[in-house]
Each structure stands twice: as C-alpha cells, then as structure tokens.
UniProtKB/TrEMBL annotation:
Entry protein name: Alpha-D-phosphohexomutase alpha/beta/alpha domain I
Keywords carried by this UniProt record: Carbohydrate metabolism, Cytoplasm, Glucose metabolism, Isomerase, Magnesium, Metal-binding, Phosphoprotein
CDD domains listed in its UniProt record: PGM2
One GO term of the biological process aspect: glucose metabolic process
GO MF terms held by the record: magnesium ion binding; phosphopentomutase activity
GO cellular component, one term: nucleus
Pfam families the record matches: PGM_PMM_I, PGM_PMM_II, PGM_PMM_III
Amino acid sequence: MTDKQSISSLAETWLQWDQDPKTRAEIEHLQSTNDVDALELCLRNRIEFGTAGLRGRMAAGFSCMNSLTVIQASQGLANYIKTARPHIASNGVVIGHDARHNSRRFAELAANAFIALQIPVYFFTEFSPTPMVPFGINYFKAAAGIMVTASHNPPQDNGYKVYSSNGAQINRPEDHEIAQSIRENLEPWANAWVELKPCDYLHADAYQNLVQPYKSHIKEYTRSTVTDWKPLSPFVYTPLHGVGGLVLPELCDSLGVDNFVSVPLQTKPDPDFPTVKFPNPEEAGALDLAIQTADQEGRALIIANDPDADRFAAAEKVDDKWFLFTGNHVGVLLASHVLDSLKNNGDLSKSVFLTTTVSSGMLDKMAVHEGARFQETLTGFKWMGNVARDLEATGVTVPFAYEEALGYMFPSVCYDKDGITAASIFLAAYAKWKSQGLTAHAKLQQLFATHGHHETLNNYFRSPNPALTAELFRGIRSGPFLGDMQLGKFKILRWRDLTEGYDSASSDHKPDLPEDSTSQMLTLWLDGGVRFTIRGSGTEPKVKFYIESCGDSRENAIEAVCETFLAILKEWVLKYTPSMTHASQLFTSSGHVLDMK
C-alpha cells in the first residue's frame, strides 16, 4: 500500500484481503456506485496505531475498525514479539474482550496471528473487564496483552488496546516499533481467517483461571485498608450496560457487602447501550437512571463503572440534591483513604503518589503533608503505569495513581486504571467515613479545609482540523504573553511548553516532563493559585483545557477559574482562531455555570 496507489487499486487490494462478507459488501457497493469520495475516505489512510493501540468506528476500509485491520495489527504485534522479544515470546499473550459488537470476533482473529507464530494465547472466552488483562499479564507472566474494547465510546466504535510485558500500556518507542511491524505484515497470513479452534497454543480456560484470583487480589487489598464494613450505607450500582455487572456484585457479596441494588435496565451487558446517549459516566445524563433508581429506593449513594469497567464514578445526595463527584474529587478521596491506611503502618517516605499534569495539584499537597512523595506524569495511564514500574525498580512503592477522567490505578492489583478495584476501595473508604460521622461529600470538604479549596473547569474548544489547532498554538507562542509573562489580568509565574521543550522555571529552561514535538501542550501557572493546561487532542477534533484554582473559599476559587477561562477565550482563542467553536455553557466541578451565550 502506498499513497500513490489509485483508489481503484486500493479497493482491489481490500477485496483481495478481506473475507468478511459485510465489509466486502460495503466496498463493493461503493465501487458499483462509483462513490470515489467515500472510497478515498475509508481506504486512502490507515487507522493510526498509537499508544492506545487502535480505536475508531466499525466499518469497511483501512481507516476503520474491522476484521482486516484487527488481523493486520495482530500480525504486526505477533511478529514484533517474535523478532524483537524472542526471549519472552514463549510466555504468551493475554487476549480479552468486552461485550461490544464484534469484540469476541476481533479477539479470535487476533489469537490466530499469535498461534501462527507458535506464541501461546491466554484467551478469554467470557466478557471481561479491561483491568483483568493487565492483571493477567502479571499473573501469567505473559509477553503482552490485548483488550478488545472501545471503553465508553458510542456503540458503533471498537478498539484494540495493547499492553507490554510489564502489565502497563505500551509507550514510546515500543508503539512506533509495533506500528512499523504492522506496516510490514499487512497481507493476511494463511490462517488469518480460520475459525479459532483448540490447539496446543490456545489456553481457552484463561478467564476461568483468572477471574477468582483477580477478585481475591482485590478483596485482600481492600480488606487491608478497612476493618469494619458495618456502617456502609445502602447504595445503587450501575455498570452502564457493560461488563462490570459480571464481576463487581459478586465481589461485593464476597466482601460481605449486600446492601445494594443494581439498576435493572443497565445490569446486563448490551452493546447498543439503549438507555444512555453516551455510555460514559462523565457525560451529562449518563447517571439519570441510577439517580431515578436511588430516589425510588431511598438511597443516597450511587457508584458506577463505564462499559469496560476501567473507570469509576460516584454520586451522593447532599441536602436533597445529587452531587456528582468529578474524577479529581474521587481521586483525592481515594488517595486520602490510602494515605490513612499506609500512615497506620509507619513511614511513608518511600511511597510515591502519581497523577497527570492535567489533574488536580491537590494530591501533591496531600502526599507531602503526610510525609509521602509525589510525582507528576504526562497524560494517560501509558505514562503512569510505566512510571510506576520505573519507580518501583528503584526500591520505592507506588500505592496509588489517578487522572481526572475517572481513572484510578492501584499497582497492588494492576498497572492500569481499574474501575472494579476503585469501586471496592471507595466502598471501604465510605464505610470508614460513615463510622466517623462523615459522608463522602463531607470528607471532601474536610480535605478542602486542610489543603485549600480546589475548583476545576475542564472542557474543550472544537477544532475541525489539525491546521486550525496548530494556528492557535502558533499564535500563542508568537504573541507577547511569554515575553511579558502576562495573560489578561493574571501574572504568569511559570510557562512550560512540552511541544518545544521549554520551562521558564528550570535553570536550563528544560521541562521536568518528556517533550513531544508531535503534539501541542502548554501549562501555565498564574498568580492567585491558578494553573491550567491547554492541549490539542490526539484522538478527537478538540483543543482541550484544564483549569484549576486553589483558594481560601469555594467562591474565590470559582471566580479565579472563570476569569482564567475568559482570558484564554479572549486573549488566545478569539484572537488567533475566531472560527474555533466552544460550548455555550461551561460548568465548574461544583456546578457553577459560566454562561457564554
């Protein structure tokens, strides 16, 4: 495949390689109707393999998620392990899948590629939560892992998530090396399309052998953090039509937690997600049915997983209104519980807590306050998982890491975000807080009183193409802001540019985090306790921003956050890219509305 191939040649290549009747028919239809534009869209460019593997819409063509692109990715990954990691190839790979459309089929096609090279496959025959794959890599001491899932994306999407031998998501340069191997193994191998059948290299009992150790590991870790569950209040649980409902209720029963109800219409896996517009607990309306169930049952606590159960969310009724905790709220609540548990066992000086540069700075204050250490990473668990592994190699422990997008990692269980473990630990913490006469919301206010009130505003501007995003950042960098160290009414205290590798605060002006010239990312510290990051999204047509202010009161923090957003909008976005659109209403984490009409 080359950029110089004609579209008719690309279509013929597709039809030579693709044996899926549905996707073949899609390309044949476009050929017969001479829809050149549609053919160009789906065939000209390949779906990008990055640090999260693959993710996209399920449809025909090299640019989409389908059986052929999964086969190609699997052949590339299998060949990479066989040639670049021959000393561990015989350890095998773990392959799991969620309950989405085509997930089981994609997982089977992936297994064929490894079996072709005589690499053992620990195959999950059952729907699985995503964190069971990284847990399984360490449990089986495997060479790699694949999870077929699109997490909380819409029903028409699917994905292919890849883990390295350390149980963490692949990161650079491994992702680039695998991508190159994929490009060198595009033509389907002889066994690529065969039905997956029993053989010496297929361990089809992997899920059955793993699910109990996974739950037992979580149970043991959870019980080490709390001594009494009795004060735990009744609660409502929703897996949002995903796989969490296949694991968490049984885990709760084994912990002696039985005072909960699951949302009836959302309990069983359903790849169409019929009761939610977006199956993401961060999205407005996603927890409406759970709230309705809780009101009917007279319960004041809701916990939720996203469809592949790697994320966790919580809501609590406060003064007869539902308070939805943000990812930062849950992150610091879980961290406080873990810190308390570790503090009871002695010295915290060799414990390091992690979060990303777009998450709250409150964890830093909490860790240092308790005598622990803190480290910031780039965005995503591909960084936090690998940084945790690197830190542990130096003799320290990483008890907990989180990012603001509802992701929480407990390395005692696995090196990726884990919504099942997070739910279990949150319930343990909730029981402890109740024994102290506190709700989760009250505990959060207690933490704010100690470490300052932190208010966040995370949202995005819609950018229809990378050129517009580049234009915005070019304007920012060429403007007077860095020279004057001023943005609107705010004095800039520190300017860090991870795209160009610059940090005004360091003696050599080198940043404290890895630079990446292929992405756009700026972080500024302003007077008044404000820090914000603005970055171009690598997967969506968006420029995302993350603003946080720490103030003496909620009102002061909200005011600083809102003024910062207005400065970004006026001084940067409207000045350099007036065509870039933004939401008409933006909400701070405590529900304050910033009206932009």
